## 1
Amino acid sequence: MANNLELLQSFSHQPLMSTPATQDLPPPGGYSEVKYRRYLPKRGPSGLVIFAGITAVCAFGFYRVAQGNLERRELKRENLWSRIHLIPLLTAESDRDAFRRQQAALNREAEIMKDVKDWKVGESVYNNTKYYTRPSVVVVPEDARQ
Amino acid sequence: MTATRDPVFTSTKFVDPTPAPKSVPPVEEIGLTSAPLKSASFFIGQYCKDYNADFMLCKNENNDPEHCLKEGRKVTRCALDLIKKLRENCDAEFEKHWKCLDVKNQDYYQCRKEERQFNSCVFEKLGLQKNIPGSPEGQPQINEKRNPIMKPHQK
């Protein structure tokens, strides 16, 4: 073997192993830890909490809507009764006016039909005595026409 | 309301000028617009309850306008009497309330402040109270409710 090495050296122009051999090693103290986990900062309340919160808000809203509906019903009742209390008063007033106009119409009819024999003023067109609302026929005087 | 129709023309306005026959005793008409009537309506309903009920029973008997003229006059006189009393005792509050109603679309809920003052004045002076029939029991009436949900939208 020694002869072979010498023979090899004699052929080559450069020395074969001029520097001592070195191995690739970790730095002193070792490598730093590898961060293979994803780093995400905290992102607020969990889904369950958000879901519960939305449910609570909606429940409160619907409760208020229901209360408001009940209140609107009472407002309607109040409005209705205020009108009911006024009905007799307004009816009495309009009845007086209706009676006045009706009498005037009957007088006009009597005046117009005075020459017709056996004419009954204000006779009902129905064969009974029940009250019925007469058709509103208005004779507008000449000077009131426009 | 009555089944009568006002003879209203689209082209001209005509009011029959013929006065009422002499056989009907004259009565002063109430002569109020809708806002004062609405403001006083619950008190009219309470103060004139007997006359109003009498009149409505009479109308139920016969719908002829001639049939209930007497009862109708009583109703109007009673309402006039009440309005006169309101004017004597709670003039300022009454005026404030109906003017508010006039401006606020005649909604009671928009004029609660004025209404409370008016109601308390009428209760003190005349002893009349606003009662809404059919209101749920065990809770304040809608006009006395504190912090209601339905509030005026504009101050």
## 2
Amino acid sequence: MRGGLLPAAEAALAELQRTGLRHEVYAREGETHSLRWRVGRWERCHALQAGVACRLAGGGTTGFASAAGVAVAAGREAARAALAARYPGPDPLPPRWALGATSVPSPPPAPTASQLERFALRLADVLSSLPTRIDEIRLAAGSSRTLLVTSEGFAASAAVTGVVVEVRASHHSLPPVLIHVAAPAVGDGLLQRCAELVALLGGPLLPLSPPQRGLHDVLLSPVVAGFLLQALVELLQDGPRGRRQVAPAWNLADARGGPDGLLPLPFDGEGLPSRRVPLLMDGRVGSLPLTWREAGGDVRRAGGAVRASYADPPGRGPANLVMGNGTLTAGELARRMDDGWRLDSLTGPVRVDSGRDGLTLQAAGVRLCHGEAVQAWPRVELRAGCGRLLASLDAAGADSSSLSLRSAVTTPSLLFRQLELRQGGQ
Amino acid sequence: MAADRLLDALAACQAIFREHASTRVEDLYLERVVEGWWRVREGRVAERGVARRDGVAARRQRRLDSSDAVDRLTLSRLLHTEPHHVPSLVFPEPPTLPDPREWLDRLGGGTWVLRWRWRWAAVVGRAAAALPWRPELLEVEADDGQRALAVLPLSEKWQPPRPAAEGRGAPPRGRVVALLAPPVAAALIHEVVGHPLEGDLVAAGLSPFAGGESRPRFAHPLEVVDDPARLDLPGSFSFDDEGTPARPRHLLRGGDAVGVLADRASAARLGVPAGNARRGGVHAMPGPRISNLVTRGPGTPLEELRRRARVEVLSVRSAAFDLPTATVRLEVRSAYALRGGEAQRPLPSFTLHAPLTTVCEGLVACSAEAEVSAEPGWCRKDGDAIPVGSDTPWLLLDGLEVG
């Protein structure tokens, strides 16, 4: 990254201060190095994404606009466009007294392009020694800095870094599966984790037979559980309100301020200090945090704003989902099922059906009887309603792993009782 | 004058990487995108905003360097030269944010999100430069998440997405004879013809149509053309994102796969013409992608197709083609049970799936009339979304499995 965010932010502030309107300037600069290996060749990308967004309010009007770049011209452009985009509406900006920053751990230094390259070659080398066909390897190392300044004198900045590895691999002639691991930095731990997950695919070939359609105990690996948690929170956001039965094993929070999880941040997308928001805990559904405007100015309900990019206005959503660890290893969880299915890796996207308040996912599955693998099926389909997922979690493992999806997700293996499985791959 | 200055500046960029072979730049891609959005509640704008993104990307062999914002420092870094060698680029001014009132009148009341998009781009290659034209787009999203993408100005036939009728009773079971309305037929053709005939998949031997004599063949003699020159459809362009002039490409003729969608790299490998490279933005590598799929075939009256079908599928939530198993999957949002050509009851949502071979054998008839529809809208591949369009007849398909 280069330059810094101040020129754009200062130019936008100077433009907006003249108007006497309340305003907020949000600038973000991000850099991503990515590598992709497929069809025997590496492809490399380096992207700089930077821009500034302005929100303003006053005289019964409000406006939002953004412009790419962090130079003076970008700040000026965003401010002028926000003024031009004003329309009648309530003030969406939180007051100064609600703003603040929580202390969060400093992110590790972002890997350089050459460090990522070396890591990629080591990873490819390790994976090539496994009895598994590697169809594709993707690595992305990113870092970003954010600056938020308001007309009432609040100024705060944040920085995050992260690395994501995705491997599409298959064993024998079975369909490929997706392995996804995220970490704050490249290192031996990440390498080992990726290798372990790919090695899991390469075990002895089990008799292939689909699950009998019906209810089964299901053990989800952290990779599958991470995608499921992201979808579950989406259902909780959009789904019916009211009391729901929540199994005591649930310990899910949006740990926006850390210290756990992949991406702790000091403040939310509107500048409210980050706090830990219990989502599923103590047998009940916690309230999902909202944007300041959605919360109607209630600071206890606000603090849930995220910005997908500098060009997006704040919207509600989780930022750093963390499912608490249990005490059992994945092996102990597996033995806890007399007869059930372990879903290790996804073979397709997770589909959320808000209308039916449920979700569907397909994953490679292994049937376990008292911990022993007895049967496998490359595409097992899991269908579950939100209510059943909330009620049927039996235990969480102690093998946490992180994913970088729409939000960061950190979760161990999860053991559910009696979820609906059927033959997938159709 | 401004346009002349811009062309001079683009020529100066081209001269830098032509004269300095060490830069190894294949092409430079420049883009300005302006997007406006309006949240509408009960017919009134409740929120609105505008975003402008300028960007530039330089492509070397299997490497892409990209940046938001286009200034001399960025360009010099991408072209491996000193900033004072680089010309100053001033992009064209976008049109002013449209007034949404005309669209609101056609929506009626209710809750909607409107997204308007204007895009300008330039592709500067070693041999030539192009300024690809793309249509102005409007996307309308209904309260239930259903979206419709259309080219501006809106045609008189354009209709916003409507809520699905409440389903009654149980969904059908087993294999069905399904009549697919044009939006659903468009999604199916996009998945089973368009994607498998993308050059990168064909060149890698991953396409089911790459199987030589054993490749699947449609029982009904369908014609499918990828046509970026259909200016009334969202996927249109005058030059592709590598600067190759747009032209229609026959993908199916008489039900047989006869063409491949190719960018320059896959065209070279397969010995076919290029012209189908597309990218969602400066940060994405261009690749062979679908534009607008126009499907035609010997037609049967719609009433007769209805009499032969058990289920009429009007819209889908999503459609997907699973390459490893060569299976298509349609998540049905709105459908009716049919008996003797008459609609009996709206059905609850369900899934239809079938292997490609079944689709090819089971696609037995199509209507004489075709329709432009809002599906598929946005096509996402490797996380990169591009607008695509369709003009498709009703299709009668035997052998889709409910489950």
